[in-house]
Design a protein that fits this description.
Keywords: Carbohydrate metabolism, Cellulose degradation, Glycosidase, Hydrolase, Polysaccharide degradation, Signal. By secondary structure, the protein is mainly alpha-helical. It contains 18 helices and 5 strands. It starts with a helix and ends with a helix.
C-alpha cells in the first residue's frame, strides 16, 4: 500500500514549524535559568557519593564513608552512590541512575557546555567505576548491594559515622538476578556510549563488561527479589515488581546502540514479545524499563527509516521495530492533552504528571526525559507521534516537557521550587541523614544511631544544603508539606535527578534566559 502522502506532508510541516518554534517561539521563552539548574542538578550527585571523596568535591560538608565496603569478602566495593536519604548502596536503582545519567550525556551532552559536560561525565564515571568492580571482581558473581537496610533504617546516622552492618549481597548462577544484572549491563553499555569519544579505552572496558554481564543475566534467568536471602533485604525497598524481562530488553537495546553489533538487534527481534514488547506501559522507573526501551528502539527504527528515505508507514529496514514506534506513540499520546488517548488522571490540577503517591517526582523526571528524547528522534527523521487521527509534532512534546521542568523549578500552585538551593523558596527539611545533621567538620564527635533521631524529628531547617536535590514532590492536588518525617514528599533520590540532568541540559542549550 502506498504511504498516506497527505499525512506525511502534514507531519513534515509540523516538524518544520516545531523547529522554527524552538528558535523563535515565545511559548518557549525561558521561565528560569536552566543552566544554573543544570549545574545544581549535577552537584547533587557529589553529595550522594560513597567512598573516598576526591579533592574538590563540591558538596564540601560531606566526608569519606564506606571505606571498607566489601572487605569482609576480600573484594573492593568502595565507591558508588547512596540511593536517597539513607546509607545503603542498592544496586538496582544505582545502575538505573547511571544509565540515565549516561543517556543524558549521550543525547544532550552537546547542550551542557564544556564545564558541565565534564561534571556530568564525572557523575557517570563515579557510578560506572563502582558497577565495573561489582560486575568483574569475582567470576560468576555480581555484587548488588552493600548495607543491611533494615538495620540501617533503625538508625539516623551520618554516612561518615555509620556503624550498622555493611553486609554484602550478590547474585550468582544458583541465585540469579536477571533484573539487576541486566540493568547493570545497560548502565555499563550506556556509559560506554557516554565515553565513546572522551575516553575510548574506558568505553571499551565498559562495553566488554556490559556484554559479559548481559550474557550472565540472560543465561541465568530469575528475579533477584526471589533469590532467597536477598528478598528480605531488597524488598520492600527495591523489589523487582515488573520482573526481569523488561531489563533484558532494555539491556539488549543499549548494547546494540553501544556496539552496533547486529546480534543484539537479532536478540530484540527474536525475544521482544516475550520480554514485554507487546505491552503498553505508561510509567518508566528504576523498576519498569519497558517505556524507555521502546523509545530507545524507536531511535533505531527512525534512524534506519531516515537512511532509506522511507516514510514511517513504508516497509522498514529493521522488520518488527515499527511496533516500538507504535508503543512509544501510545506512551506520549496519553500525556498530550487533546489526543483521543489523553489520560487527564495522570495530571494534578496544577499540571504536574502524577503517577504514584510516594516520591512521584521520579515519574515526572523520567517522563520528561522520554518526551525530549523521543522528540529528538522524531525530529531527526521528520516524523511525528501518531495519536489516533492526529499527528503530534516533536515541538508539542518539547513544550509539554518544558511545562514539567518549569513546575519543578517553581512555576506551580505552591510557588516553590522542588530543587533544593534553586530559587528563593525550596524544601528546607529533607528526609536525608547527611543534610539534616551537623557536618563532621562542624561536629567532629560521633553522633550515634539513636541520638540522630532528634535531627530527623526536628522542625529546624537542614544543617547542610543538599544543593540540586529534587525531592519526592507534591501530592495529587499539588499540596506539599516540608516535613522531614514525610519521606514520600521530602526525600530526594539519585534516580529522580538523573533523568532531569538531560532535560535541563536541553533547555539550557536551546532556550535563552
Amino acid at each position: 500500500m502506498a504511504p498516506n502522502r497527505k499525512s506525511r506532508s502534514s507531519c513534515l510541516f509540523l516538524v518544520a514549524a516545531a523547529v522554527q518554534l524552538l528558535v523563535l517561539g515565545p511559548s518557549l521563552a525561558a521561565a528560569f535559568n536552566y543552566a544554573d539548574a543544570l549545574a545544581k542538578s549535577i552537584i547533587f550527585f557529589e553529595g550522594q557519593r560513597s567512598g573516598k571523596l576526591p579533592p574538590g568535591n563540591r558538596m564540601s560538608w560531606r566526608g569519606d564513608s564506606g571505606l571498607r565496603d566489601g572487605a569482609q569478602h576480600n573484594v573492593d566495593l568502595v565507591g558508588g552512590y547512596y540511593d536517597a536519604g539513607d546509607n545503603v548502596k542498592f544496586g538496582l536503582p544505582m545502575a538505573f541512575t547511571t544509565t540515565m545519567l549516561a543517556w543524558s550525556v549521550a543525547d544532550f551532552g552537546k547542550f551542557m557546555g564544556t564545564g558541565e559536560l565534564a561534571h556530568a561525565r564525572a557523575a557517570v564515571r563515579w557510578g560506572a567505576d563502582y558497577l565495573l568492580k561489582a560486575a568483574t571482581s569475582t567470576p560468576g558473581t555480581l555484587y548488588v548491594q552493600v548495607g543491611e537496610p533494615n538495620q540501617d533504617h533503625r538508625c539516623w546516622e551520618r554516612p561518615e559515622d555509620m556503624d550498622t552492618p555493611r553486609s554484602v549481597y550478590a547474585v550468582t548462577a544458583d541465585k540469579p538476578g536477571s533484573d539487576v544484572a541486566a540493568e547493570t549491563a545497560a548502565a555499563l553499555a550506556a556509559s560506554a556510549v557516554a565515553f565513546r569519544r572522551a575516553d575510548p579505552a574506558y568505553a571499551s572496558r565498559l562495553l566488554h563488561a556490559a556484554v559479559k554481564t548481559f550474557e550472565f543475566a540472560d543465561r541465568h534467568r530469575g528475579s533477584y527479589s526471589d533469590a532467597g536471602a536477598l528478598s528480605g533485604v531488597v524488598c520492600p525497598f527495591y523489589c523487582s515488581y515488573s520482573g526481569y524481562q523488561d531489563e533484558l530488553l532494555w539491556a539488549a537495546s543499549w548494547l546494540h546502540r553501544a556496539s552496533n553489533n547486529a546480534s543484539f538487534m537479532s536478540y530484540v527481534q527474536a525475544n521482544g514479545l516475550q520480554l514485554g514488547a507487546g505491552d503498553d506501559d505508561f510509567s518508566f522507573s528504576w523498576d519498569d524499563k519497558r517505556a524507555g526501551a521502546k523509545v530507545l528502539l524507536s531511535r533505531a527504527f527512525l534512524k534506519n527509516q531516515r537512511k532509506k528515505k522511507l516514510s514511517p508507514k513504508q516497509q522498514p529496514l529493521l522488520p518488527g521495530l515499527q511496533l516500538y514506534k507504535a508503543h512509544s506513540d501510545s506512551y506520549v499520546c496519553a500525556l498530550v492533552p487533546g489526543t483521543s488517548s489523553f489520560q487527564a488522571s495522570q495530571y494534578t490540577p496544577g499540571g504536574l504528571i502524577y503517577k504514584e503517591g510516594g516520591s512521584n517526582m521520579q515519574y515526572v523526571t523520567t517522563a520528561t526525559f522520554l518526551l525530549l528524547a523521543y522528540a529528538k528522534y522524531l525530529r531527526s527523521a521528520g516524523a511525528c507521534a501518531v495519536c489516533g487521527g492526529r499527528d503530534v509534532s516533536p515541538g508539542e512534546l518539547v513544550a509539554l516537557a518544558k511545562r514539567q521542568v518549569d513546575y519543578i523549578l517553581g512555576k506551580n500552585p505552591a510557588g516553590t521550587s522542588y530543587m533544593v538551593g534553586f530559587g528563593g523558596k525550596f524544601p528546607r527539611r529533607l528526609h536525608h541523614r547527611g543534610a539534616s545533621m551537623p557536618a563532621v567538620r562542624d561536629h567532629p564527635g560521633r553522633i550515634g544511631c539513636d541520638e540522630g533521631f532528634a535531627y530527623l524529628h526536628s522542625q529546624d531547617a537542614d544543617r547542610n544544603v543538599l544543593v540540586g536535590a529534587v525531592v519526592g514532590g507534591p501530592d495529587a492536588k499539588d499540596g506539599f508539606v516540608d516535613d522531614r518525617d514525610g519521606y514520600g514528599q521530602t526525600e530526594p533520590a539519585t534516580y529522580v535527578n538523573a533523568p532531569l540532568v538531560g532535560a535541563l541540559a536541553f533547555f539550557a542549550g536551546t532556550v535563552k534566559h
